[in-house]
Design brief:
The complex is a heterodimer of chains A (709) and B (164). With 709 residues, chain A is an alpha+beta fold. Chain A has three domains: 189 residues, Aldehyde oxidase/xanthine dehydrogenase, molybdopterin binding domain (Aldehyde Oxidoreductase, domain 4, 2-Layer Sandwich); 147 residues, Aldehyde Oxidoreductase, domain 4 (2-Layer Sandwich); 230 residues, Aldehyde Oxidoreductase, domain 4 (2-Layer Sandwich). Chain A contains 18 helices and 29 strands. In chain A, the strands form eight sheets. Chain A has a seven-stranded mixed β-sheet, sandwiched between helices. Chain A has a six-stranded mixed β-sheet with strand order 14-22-21-20-15-29, with helices on both faces. Chain A has a four-stranded mixed β-sheet with strand order 23-24-25-28, with helices on both faces. In chain A, helix 2 runs antiparallel to helix 4, helix 10 crosses helix 11 and helix 13 runs parallel beside helix 18. Chain B has 164 residues and is of the alpha+beta class. Chain B has two domains: 76 residues, Ubiquitin-like (UB roll), CATH 3.10.20; 78 residues, DNA polymerase, domain 1 (Orthogonal Bundle). Helix content of chain B is 35%, strand content 15%. In chain B, strands 2-1-5-3-4 form a five-stranded mixed β-sheet, sandwiched between helices. The chains are: A alpha+beta (709), B alpha+beta (164). At the A-B interface, helix 5 and helix 17 of A face helix 1, helix 2, helix 3, helix 4 and helix 5 of B.
Chain lengths: 709, 164
């Protein structure tokens, strides 16, 4: 739908390719709703000569079906963050139907409008309004058609529960769906002036709703990308280099070619296998891999990472990022006290529970791929390029998938599966192993952050110089009132393939900023809470910070110190939402490792759409955010990962769950903004600040290495 | 190749297969039971948890010959017709899933835990489920779901009927 031109927030690592051309909707007569198994007859036949539903029409976004159900179409992807439920709620709200009357078709390039990459917390501020406008326009149309059919004035009509009523007579949406007048109106452009329901009048939005499709998940019947099965399908495996940058010199395929039922495929550097079972495909791979000879290239190791990033920083980069206020040189010169520090953040892996997976099928010159990606249209484009096909010959479907966190914006597994399928002459399912996912998926960028600040005689910060090397510009600027600032993001040469991650560099930047802010408060002899509040103009940040501190009883607990424990806090803003957390940690018996004992986190993202899912997202962000501050760190040497498995790369688990309290501030007067990312950015600095409180030692790395001695 | 006979969700099944294939692969690829998930292939995440003779095991590191003559219950075998198992119902009622990929493994682990500890303490829940990973990190809701399942009234022997 053209009402939602997806303009992603300016983050370097989000995929920001030009929008793929609009899909050819040539299968609109019948939609098979994924999961529900319903065959729905769509009322409005396709407009246009080739059956293309015109952009910006209702036909492109939603259908009123003859059984009274609503079918909502969106290019967004469900990966656990909740858009399926949220978008259904948005449509149900404006159409005045119960939530269970809405079926959502997502991320199928033949059926849905291109809503852009599912990234950057854009579903809530971008797609939800688009859906609400379309649903509200549909509601107005239904009222208009009813007024004609019932010969009643529009003002006398009431809409409730999918039924339009006037003076005791009524028409259901199912009745109205058959109307030729409605079908004709569906082809028209959406009216620009549709009135949306005010937040204070919401009946569905703003109420807690469980994840749609939950029953299919608890029974195991939902089919994730890894679970798709096609007739005649084979399973694939792909040869990987033993180290980054290694070139294949020699290989003997004959051992695999001798195996019955195994397709051995070599195409340049691409070597893969397809067989009746994934076991057979793996065995073929192992026998051939043993014969491979490689030329390796020198690679930097994680031991020298941060020096490497600084050495390779590009000061003359083409797109310098950053901003300045006043004169940072002048401010530092005038300062009575100056502090300087460097912070580091290690590479981490998203490690979604479902590794990359794709099923590819070639039929009559058409390529269909079911795959786990947040970027269905981008992957369609990549497939079209890889196989020199028109985009109308490529069909990408993304079943609700097993996690992403910004780690699945690319289409490599889709291309590999399609290569195997084409050569084998069968559909092929390719599922990356956990080891492949750790090694060959991209990483969250590592960061080196250098920061210097100066305070005047009143211990007010007057100068702030902040430079992020390599990891990104998200939340780069400081929210604090400081007269002279310079904040910069300097690109570098990353030794590892890096890309998006939940909230991107906002975590690294907020970690350094909030930990260093505590260093300044300490140096000034001021309470970290009071110090922050005195530098904040942003009332929304003040509100969440005060809410968290009050519930945590910050001031009271500052006075009561217990040996081996510490408290800390942090706040921040990103993607137009605000967050603050207070934590208590305890050091283990050796005094080396912290454990998060308690966290109170307050979050505000405008008017809350689905408080149940919002709470889940904040809880998930807290636990996920805990990993890279306590333990997560990719170690590598000579182009190989040293810890690319769950046995060696320890992610948070049940025993890490602290006493947790989540405070959700509902601002019905503000537009809703995304919430799946920002709650993660305060966890690391709050924990680091608490470690300092407990030990008196300032640890300036993620994970908190030095604390472990 | 070998012929492996095992009981899966109450039905006797016979599979011609390499005996050292993981049970997970046989369930998913030969028997079409894709509710059991691959997460790591090393028994480190337990998305692949099934019950073998009532005990929760990691099917990704269990060669199928180990299941010869055993009774296997997968996530597909828990519900009684249209009626969900109390643990499934508790996960649904607590909305204890985000992407849901780890959920079948969590549910199978919980069924096993409640068999041995019908009224677990929070510490027992954490200890019992600690091997199961969730990268959406929705652990808080899962703990609530296990507590709810433990409170749920169910007929004595109901689980035993499925498990034994």
């Amino acid at each position: 739908m053209s009402t939602d031109p997806e303009v992603l927030v300016p983050e370097r690592y989000e995929l920001r390719e030009a929008a793929a051309c609009r899909s050819v909707m040539n299968r609109r007569e019948f939609l098979e709703v994924a999961g529900a198994g319903l065959l729905i007859v769509v009322t409005a036949p396709c407009a246009g000569a080739q059956g293309v539903a015109a952009e910006g029409t209702l036909a492109a976004r939603l259908h009123i079906n003859e059984d009274g159900f609503i079918t909502l179409l969106t290019g967004k992807v469900e990966e656990g963050q909740g858009p399926r439920t949220e978008l259904a709620m948005a449509a149900a709200e404006e159409l005045r139907v119960p939530l269970d009357r809405v079926k959502v078709v997502m991320a199928d390039t033949e059926l849905v409008p291109n809503d852009g990459v599912t990234a950057g917390s854009r579903t809530t501020p971008g797609t939800v309004p688009a859906v609400r406008k379309a649903a509200a326009a549909a509601r107005e149309l239904l009222i208009l058609v009813s007024s004609h059919q019932l010969s009643a004035a529009r003002g006398s009509l009431e809409v409730r529960d999918g039924t339009v009523t006037a003076e005791g007579r009524s028409l259901s949406y199912a009745d109205l769906a058959k109307s030729p007048e409605l079908a004709a109106a569906y082809k028209e452009a959406l009216p620009p002036d549709t009135t949306l329901t005010l937040a204070k009048n919401w009946r569905i939005l703003g109420t807690p709703r469980a994840r749609l499709g939950g029953r299919d998940i608890v029974t195991g019947s939902h089919r994730y990308p890894s679970d798709i099965v096609r007739p005649g399908m084979l399973y694939g495996s792909v040869l990987r280099a033993p180290s980054y940058g290694a070139k294949l010199l020699k290989l003997d395929l004959s051992s695999a070619e001798r195996l019955q039922g195994v397709h051995a495929i070599r195409n340049g550097d691409f070597v893969g296998f397809a067989a009746k079972t994934s076991f057979a495909a793996r065995k073929a791979l192992q026998s051939v891999a043993a014969t491979a000879q490689w030329e390796t290239v020198e690679q930097p190791s994680s031991d020298v990472l941060f020096g490497y990033l600084k050495e390779h920083a590009r000061e003359d980069q083409q797109r310098p990022r950053g901003s300045a206020r006043g004169s940072v040189e002048e401010g530092l010169k005038q300062a009575k006290r100056r502090l300087k520090a460097s912070y580091t953040v290690a590479y981490v892996q998203h490690a979604p529970m479902e590794p990359r997976a794709a099923v590819a099928e070639w039929k009559d010159g058409m390529l269909t791929v079911w795959t786990g990606t947040s970027n269905p249209y981008g992957v369609r484009e990549q497939l079209a390029q890889a196989f020199s096909l028109g985009q109308d010959r490529v069909h990408v479907i993304v079943p609700d998938m097993g996690g992403g966190f910004g780690g699945k914006h690319t289409g490599e597994v889709a291309i590999e599966a399609a290569r195997l399928a084409r050569e084998a002459g069968h559909p092929v399912s390719l599922r990356w192993t956990r080891s492949e996912e750790f090694t060959w998926a991209y990483f969250r960028p590592a960061a080196l952050i250098e920061v210097e600040a100066g305070m005047d005689a009143t211990n007010t910060v007057i100068a702030w110089d902040f430079a992020n090397y390599n990891s990104g510009a998200a939340a780069l600027d400081t929210p604090y009132r400081i007269g002279n600032t310079r904040v910069r993001f300097l690109e570098s040469q990353s030794p590892l393939r890096q890309g998006s991650y939940r909230c991107l560099a906002a975590t690294a930047n907020n970690f350094a900023r909030e930990a260093f802010t505590d260093e300044l408060a300490e140096d000034a002899g001021r309470d970290p809470l009071e110090f922050r509040l005195s530098h904040l103009d942003n009332e929304r940040i003040k509100d969440v910070l005060s809410a968290a501190a009050e519930r945590f009883r910050w001031s009271e607990r500052r006075k009561k110190r217990r040996p081996g424990t510490g408290i800390g806090l942090a706040c921040g803003t990103e993607k137009n939402s605000v967050v603050a957390a207070c934590v208590e940690i305890e050091m283990d018996a050796s005094g080396e490792s912290p454990r998060l004992v308690e966290i109170v986190e307050a979050f505000e993202c405008g008017a809350i759409l689905n408080p149940a899912n919002l709470r889940s997202q904040v809880e998930g962000c807290i636990m996920m955010g805990l990993g890279p501050v306590l333990r997560e760190e990719i170690r590598f040497r000579d182009g190989r990962l040293m810890n690319g498995s769950f046995a060696e790369y320890r992610v948070p688990r049940f025993s890490d769950v602290p006493k947790m309290e989540v405070l959700l501030l509902d601002r019905k007067d503000l537009e809703p903004v995304g919430a799946g990312e920002t709650p993660i950015i305060v966890v690391a600095p709050a924990v680091a600040n608490a470690v300092f409180d407990a030990t008196g030692k300032r640890v300036r790395s993620m994970p908190l290495r030095a604390a472990r001695g | 190749m070998a012929t492996i006979r095992l009981t899966v969700n109450g039905k006797l099944r016979s599979v011609d297969t390499e005996p050292d294939r993981p049970l997970l692969d046989v369930l998913r690829e030969d028997l079409g039971l894709t509710g059991t998930k691959y997460g790591c292939g090393e028994g480190q995440c337990r998305a692949c948890t099934v019950l073998m003779d009532g005990k929760a095991i990691a099917s990704c590191v269990t060669p199928v010959h180990m299941a010869q003559g055993r009774r296997i219950i997968t996530i597909e075998g828990l519900a009684d017709g249209g009626r969900l198992h109390p643990v499934q119902q508790a996960f649904l009622d607590e909305d204890a899933m985000q992407c849901g990929y780890c959920t079948p493994g969590m549910i199978m682990r919980t069924v096993s835990l409640l068999e041995s500890s019908p009224r677990p303490t929070e510490a027992q829940i954490i200890e019992g489920l600690n091997v199961n990973l969730c990268r959406c990190s929705g652990y808080v809701r899962v703990i609530s779901a296990v507590k709810r399942a433990a409170r749920a009234p169910h007929k004595k022997g109901e689980e035993a009927g499925h498990v034994n």
